[in-house]
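All the exercises in this workshop are built on plain-text protein records. A learned vocabulary of local backbone shapes supplies the integers on the structure line. Once this layout is familiar, the rest of the handout is easier to follow. An example says more than a description, so a record of this kind follows:
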Amino acid sequence: MQPLKCRLQDVHDLMQECVDIHAPILELTVQMESKSRKIGISSDMNRSGKYFDTLFFLDDKDYASLDEMFSALGYPPDMMVFVMKEEGVDDPRDYTLLAQREIM
């Protein structure tokens, strides 16, 4: 399986879209330069199906906001990255919201 190539801004936009559509659960393995990083969103869900306590994470560090997490990365938004995998999906291209952002 080949990694999916996209811009770092595309990863940011994907994560924002997950929050906007009320599906704030995502875990990506992304290669930036030569380093593999875990990037994602975690949330708890109450009995009525509403998400709460949404956190954004980069490796082992949690952030209260998406922009705070991407600022901590310190890379420019137009940097090319490779999405190696999305947790629970064998091929990142099988995840439609991510596949739409692929750069050929």
